[in-house]
Design a protein that fits this description.
Number of strands: 10
Number of helices: 12
Helix content: 55-70%
Strand content: 5-15%
Order of helices and strands: HEHHEEEEEEEHEEHHHHHHHH
Number of domains: 2
């Protein structure tokens, strides 16, 4: 019989490993050595971004890592490991199959980027809640056997996946409930398989009858929820449009409300009859100015969008025309180059061979010059197009800013006029209070305010300053964002054009070097 120390040593669990490049390369080589692709992988090296499937089962992996370069991966098998957390999958946007069964996972998470996922296997883990899968709109197969799911209602979370046709929940506590099969069949009428068994039509009919009223109520709630979500999406889209036009929250009383929200005496003064009517008229005037600016902003935004779209259309046409011309030149050159290579293969005389190669190099230099000249012509053409856009957009933004400044100036004038009228009413009220000739009942708050003239005047001046400040802040926000948008747009266009030009010149040079290398092989 072995000693205690030997017995304990025999049962020591191996330390979990973390996925690194070496493990990934080893797995790729193993899964490709059985066919010709294995030879290619070993000969040319491994390019993670080109791998479509990755098999990493039963490797004692404790943490998912180093998968950021596998952007083309469509299938990932990580079953039968010791993984405790779903993570490190953010870059796998093309994944359609994910197997994480037989691990130690306790929570569904980290799947947000997997919008193309169709098959998700989480069987034999320690998960008790189905959640955090909202983005998996293409899910067709959900395998969740032998977990800790105890609430049958939680399965209803899966109703949002309209393409789902197979679910496996066997081995969970919920699968032991009496109505389990009928519950699933009723709430998932389009489901084909449950726990690897076909759901027959009789079961579906019985389930539909049994849960008829509950289903009707649920469908009604889901319809209401869908309508609310659609309304929220429309609201967000509308707000984005208004924000892109720099006039968000100017289509109503929002600016006016922001002017008075930090004005503690404003509501108190409303108890003065003349002031209540006056503020109502002032609010209407401010709102009219804001709505005018709002409508102008949307109209100008549409004009700018049209101008930008026209630019990109012209840009695309210019680049396409250049590409077609360059392709024609390259096609002719390629044919001539093939003929020259064939001619060189027939030559045996060294001097004649060298002379022919020199001539070929001259022709290659002419080709390079021709392509470079064509590129420079395109650059010049695009510079003109960009310059025209700059002039046009600058004029549009400038005119819009001037219009906005004019409207905000009118708002300031309205505020000045309102302030003066309020001041006059307050002075008159102070005199009536002093002479005890008020013809309306004064509340305690108003009485405290009108006990001292300086207090009233200070309150009015503070209110006036706050109102002007809010108007100025909104004007500054609009002007700065409009200017920043124009600068960012033109910078992005210029940066992209510079990148395109550098890439094209580099491509030309590489192609020319390739042709010359082919010629050098004959020396």
């Amino acid at each position: 019989m072995p000693s205690d120390s030997k017995f304990k040593k025999y049962f020591i669990k191996p330390k979990p490993i973390v996925m690194d490049e070496e493990i990934l390369k080893e797995a790729i080589v193993e899964q490709t050595t059985q066919d010709k692709a294995g030879n290619v992988v070993q000969a040319e090296g491994i390019h993670f971004e080109e791998i479509l499937q990755l098999l990493l089962e039963n490797r004692n992996i404790g943490k998912i890592d180093h998968l950021w370069d596998f952007t083309s991966l469509t299938r990932l098998d990580l079953n039968t490991n010791v993984i405790e957390k779903i993570e490190g999958l953010d870059r796998l946007v093309n994944l359609t199959w994910l197997n994480l069964s037989f691990n130690h996972i306790e929570k569904i998470e980290g799947l947000e980027s997997l919008r193309k996922l169709e098959v998700l296997n989480l069987s034999k883990n320690n998960i008790s809640v189905i959640e955090n899968m909202d983005t998996l709109e293409k899910l067709t197969n959900f395998l969740f056997a032998k977990n800790l799911l105890g609430q049958l209602d939680n399965v209803l979370y899966l109703r949002k996946f309209k393409n789902l046709f197979s679910i496996n929940l066997s081995g969970n506590p919920v699968s032991e409930e009496e109505d389990y099969k009928y519950f699933i069949a009723a709430y998932f009428p389009n489901l084909m398989c449950l726990d690897y068994r076909l759901i027959d039509e009789n079961t579906k009919k019985e389930a539909a009858i049994k849960y008829q009223y509950v289903l009707e109520e649920l469908r009604h709630k889901e319809l209401q929820q869908k309508q609310a979500e659609e309304a929220e999406q429309r609201r967000k889209a509308e707000l984005k449009l208004h924000t892109d036009a720099f006039v968000e929250f100017l289509n109503g009383p929002q600016l006016f409300q922001s002017m008075i929200e930090d004005d503690p005496e404003a509501e108190t003064l409303q108890c003065v009859p003349e002031l209540a009517h006056l503020r109502q008229a002032f609010e209407q005037q401010i709102v009219e100015q804001c709505v005018q600016l709002f409508e102008t902003g949307l109209s100008e935004h549409k004009r700018r969008e049209t101008e930008v779209k026209s630019f990109f259309t012209g840009h695309s046409q210019a680049v396409t025309g250049y590409q077609q011309h360059a392709a024609h030149i390259l096609a002719q050159s390629e044919q001539q180059h093939k003929e020259r290579i064939a001619e060189l293969q027939q030559l045996s005389d060294t001097d004649q061979l060298k002379a022919t190669i020199d001539h070929c190099n001259e022709e290659t230099s002419k080709l390079c010059a021709s392509l470079m000249e064509l590129e420079f012509q395109l650059v010049s053409q695009l510079e003109d197009i960009i310059k025209k856009l700059d002039i046009s957009i600058s004029e549009m933004v400038g005119n819009f800013i001037e219009t906005a400044k004019g409207i905000f100036e009118q708002c300031q004038d309205l505020e000045d006029d309102y302030h003066e009228k309020v001041r006059q009413i307050c002075v008159a009220t102070l005199e009536k209070v002093a002479q005890e000739k008020l013809d309306w009942h004064m509340t305690d708050e108003v009485q405290m305010l009108f006990e001292d003239k300086d207090t009233v005047m200070d309150a009015l001046d503070t209110s006036h300053d706050n109102h002007l400040l809010r108007i100025n802040e909104r004007e500054t926000q609009l002007v700065s964002r409009a200017d920043a948008w124009k600068v960012a747009l033109l910078k992005e266009i210029e940066d992209n054009e510079l990148k395109r030009n550098r890439t094209r010149i580099s491509d030309i040079q590489r192609y020319v070097d390739h042709l010359r290398e082919q010629l050098e092989e004959f020396l």
